[in-house]
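[09:14] KT: can someone run the structure on this one? pasting the chain below
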Amino acid sequence: MSLDVRTITEDDLPNWIRARRTGYVQSPTPSKTEVAFRRELMDLARAQGAFDAGRCVATYRSFTQRLSVPGGASVTANAVSNVSVSATHRRRGLLSRMIDRDLREAAERGDAAATLIAAEYPIYGRFGFGPATRVTEWEVDVFRTGVDPRHAGPGDGGRVDYVDVAELREHGPALYERVRAVRHGLVDRTDVWWRRNTGALPMDDAPWTEPSAVVHRSAEGTVDGLLVFTADDRWEAKLPHQTATVLDLVAVSPAAERALWLFLLSVDWITSVRTGYRAPDDLLPDLLPDPRAARVVTDADLLWLRPLDVPALLEARTYPVAGPLVLDVTDPAGPGGASGPAAGRFLLDAGPDGAGCARTARPADLTLPAAALGSLFLGGESAVRLAALGRVAEERPGAAGRADALLRTGRRPWCADVF
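[09:31] RB: done, structure tokens below
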């Protein structure tokens, strides 16, 4: 019997969730709570499933996302999530059918890019996605830091206050949007995200445990940072050995960020801190008198980006220097091997105040696949490095270095959320 790949209906949702759980090697049967959560979370018109004799065997969905780019603006992205194919139905082109349709519809809508978090690295490059941000997680030995808890309070005239989840929902969304305006790579957080992460919208039947949360207030009383964390309860020989795990730490200013880290490292009984996913160039290690107290436990790619509308994407950000660059983008990732939406030769005329980008017949400076442009766009990857790897071709000597001067950013891009 042929496999039916189609948009799902509300009646399909429990079957679709079961297939997703099966593909993720989880207990298959969803609870009524999870079905209700997914229904509120999902736009069914952008959810697809593959069905074999009425049984869902592959899942896929997308949603509209806003991605912050260098310079403080945001672009509209087609965010891909919940991709699964049951082990019984692999190598039948199910993902290709679903993602080809979704990316075609995204390009028709005018989305500048598509994004995803890749559970498995080898899959998505062939669809034009490239890793665009990386994350690092540290484990901090509090006793080795050299931080004196007696002097770890804010030194900028501000203060740190505990807040409950209601206050977190009140202050968090506006603060996070302010942070997105100064930190590229972050994706927007919807009302559903805030309710899910503050206990107002349960995802499953597991009891929700309220985390600890604090905000940093500036000397003027404005909330300019927040920290959410949990701590275990472990004692040995009547001595505390508690690990604090950071769930969220965002701040508008380096002063607020420093105050929140030093606050957490001064909390009684906490002997170790797991930082959660931070940017590779996070300030934390070098905020410590002894940076070696922060040990790297994770270093990996996170957000992947696929260009759809190259001019719209490149015009959305700013550039540290001025200059033209001609990019010949190859994109064979369309349906049936046809050219995808990012294919073409583009003249980027860029500068600190913005950029123009349009198709051109001028000779190319660089030739690169759409996936490589996805890796370069946010400024975290080097064209010189990709050229050395054979993933970018210099058509003019020194073009990769010129691309780096235009595209690289002073801080690494950072995506804080898995979606």
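[09:33] KT: thanks! The first helix runs from residue 13 to 23.
[09:34] RB: yep, looked fine to me
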